[in-house]
C-alpha cells in the first residue's frame, strides 16, 4: 500500500510540472514579459509552441545564431541579441542549437522537453532595427544637452557604458568627441529613465586622454560587462564653454549685451561694481572688436534663468588682454563632492558660491532638493532622505559657523 501511494504521488507531481498554457500553431514563437517599442525594438522571454503547449527555451548554447532565428520568426529585424534577463516562465523547457540561417527554431537541432534545465535558465532576445551609426555616442536622460547617461552605438543599437573604472580621462575623451572642450564638470552613476531593458556595450574603459573617440580606448570587450544594477550607468556633464572665454548675451545685436565669462565649464555673469570703459575695452578686444567700447551698467536681463556672478569689482589696466587677467576681488573656491560627482568652481562671494553649488546640484540626478545639515565648520556634511551622505566644502574668510544652515 505504501509503495502504491508513493507512485501515485510522483505521477501527480509530474503532471503539475509539465502543464503549461495551451497554443494551437506548432513552432510559433512569442515574447513574454518584455517590451515592444513601436515594432522597432521588441524584447522578452522566448516561448515556443510545442505539442499545443507553450514552453520556454534553455539557455545552454543560446547565442546570437539562435537569437537571430527566433527574431526572424517575429518579423524583419536587422539585429538580434541573446539575453537572459526576463525571468522564468512555465511549462516544458526545450533546447535548440542553430546555425543562424534556419527558417524557424523547429528547423534547428533540438532536444524537446529536457530535464537538465530549470526556468531560472529561460532565455530571452532583443530584436531591433538599426537606429544609429557605429561608434556614435550621445548623452540621454539628462536635464541639459551636455549632461546625461552615456550611450554608444554598436551593431546598430544604442547601449550604455558601465561605470566601472569610469574616470575623468574617459569623460574627457567622450566630451571631446561630442564637440565640447573636453573637461567634464561631473562624473556620476546616472539613473535610468528608459522604458526598455538596458544593454551594456562597454565596461572597464581605460582611456589615456589622448584618444579621439571613446571606442578607441581600451576596454573589456564589446558586450562584456559585470554590471547588473540600474545604478551603474556612466554619466557625465560636459563643459559648455572654454575656460575664461567671454560672450555677450541678451543684447539687441551681436555686439551688445550682458557680459558672461566661462569658469569651470559654466557661463556666469560679471557684477557691475566698478565696471568702466577700461574693463569694457578688454572684453571687446578679447571678442575681436577693435572699435570704441561703451561700458553699460546693470544691463537689462531678458532671461528667465537664475544669474550666477563669477566676477566682481573688475579693475582692468591698459595691458590686460583677457578679462580673466584683470584685477578682481579674491574669488571663493568651492569643491562639491557627492558620491562619484565632483564640482570645482570659483565665485565672487560665498553667497554666490552657494547659489552656484545649489544650482549645480539641482540639475544632477537624482534630484537632491532636500538636504539636512549635519555638521558645521569650513564645509558641511549633508544627507538625503534615503541616507546618502556627501561632503560639501566651501571655504572663505567670511565663512563662519552660521553659514552651513544656508548651504543645506
Automatic annotation (TrEMBL):
It is a single-pass membrane protein. One of its GO terms (cellular component) is membrane. Gene3D superfamilies: SRCR-like domain. It is found in: Membrane. Pfam families: SRCR. PROSITE patterns: SRCR_1 (PS00420), SRCR_2 (PS50287). Residues 29-128, 137-239, 246-326 form the SRCR domain. Disulfide bonds join 98-108, 207-217, 316-326. The keyword Repeat applies. The keyword Disulfide bond applies. Keywords: Disulfide bond, Glycoprotein, Membrane, Receptor, Repeat, Signal, Transmembrane, Transmembrane helix. Residues 1-20 form the signal peptide. This is Scavenger receptor cysteine-rich type 1 protein M130.
Amino acid at each position: 500500500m505504501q509503495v502504491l501511494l508513493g507512485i501515485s504521488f510522483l505521477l501527480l507531481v509530474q503532471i503539475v510540472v509539465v502543464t503549461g498554457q495551451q497554443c494551437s500553431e506548432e513552432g510559433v514563437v512569442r515574447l513574454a514579459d518584455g517590451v515592444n517599442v513601436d515594432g522597432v525594438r521588441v524584447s522578452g522571454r522566448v516561448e515556443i509552441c510545442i505539442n499545443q503547449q507553450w514552453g520556454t527555451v534553455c539557455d545552454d548554447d543560446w547565442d546570437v545564431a539562435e537569437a537571430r532565428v527566433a527574431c526572424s520568426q517575429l518579423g524583419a529585424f536587422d539585429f538580434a541579441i541573446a539575453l537572459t534577463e526576463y525571468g522564468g516562465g512555465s511549462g516544458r523547457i526545450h533546447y535548440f542549437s542553430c546555425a543562424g540561417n534556419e527558417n524557424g527554431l523547429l528547423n534547428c537541432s533540438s532536444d524537446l522537453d529536457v530535464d537538465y534545465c530549470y526556468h531560472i535558465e529561460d532565455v530571452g532576445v532583443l530584436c531591433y532595427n538599426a537606429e544609429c551609426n557605429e561608434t556614435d555616442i550621445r548623452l540621454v536622460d539628462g536635464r541639459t544637452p551636455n549632461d546625461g547617461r552615456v550611450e554608444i552605438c554598436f551593431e546598430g543599437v544604442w547601449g550604455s557604458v558601465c561605470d566601472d573604472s569610469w574616470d575623468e580621462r574617459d569623460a574627457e575623451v567622450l566630451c571631446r568627441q561630442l564637440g565640447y572642450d573636453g573637461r567634464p564638470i561631473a562624473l556620476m552613476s546616472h539613473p535610468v529613465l528608459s522604458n526598455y531593458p538596458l544593454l551594456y556595450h562597454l565596461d572597464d574603459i581605460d582611456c589615456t586622454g589622448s584618444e579621439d573617440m571613446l571606442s578607441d580606448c581600451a576596454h573589456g570587450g564589446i558586450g562584456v560587462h559585470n554590471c547588473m544594477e540600474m545604478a551603474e550607468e556612466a554619466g557625465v556633464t560636459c563643459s559648455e564653454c572654454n575656460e575664461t572665454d567671454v560672450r555677450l548675451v541678451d543684447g539687441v545685436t551681436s555686439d551688445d549685451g550682458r557680459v558672461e565669462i566661462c569658469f569651470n565649464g559654466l557661463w556666469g555673469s560679471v557684477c557691475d561694481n566698478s565696471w568702466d570703459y577700461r574693463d569694457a575695452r578688454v572684453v571687446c578686444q578679447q571678442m575681436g572688436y577693435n572699435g570704441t567700447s561703451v561700458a553699460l551698467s546693470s544691463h537689462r536681463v531678458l532671461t528667465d534663468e537664475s544669474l550666477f556672478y563669477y566676477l566682481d569689482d573688475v579693475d582692468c589696466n591698459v595691458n590686460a588682454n583677457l578679462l580673466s587677467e584683470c584685477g578682481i576681488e579674491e574669488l571663493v573656491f568651492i569643491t562639491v563632492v557627492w558620491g562619484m560627482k565632483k564640482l570645482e568652481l570659483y565665485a565672487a562671494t560665498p553667497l554666490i558660491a552657494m547659489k552656484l553649488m545649489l544650482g549645480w546640484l539641482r540639475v544632477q540626478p537624482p534630484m537632491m532638493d532636500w538636504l539636512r545639515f549635519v555638521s558645521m565648520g569650513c564645509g558641511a556634511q549633508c544627507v538625503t532622505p534615503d541616507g546618502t551622505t556627501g561632503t560639501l566644502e566651501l571655504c572663505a574668510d567670511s565663512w563662519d559657523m552660521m553659514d552651513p544652515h544656508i548651504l543645506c
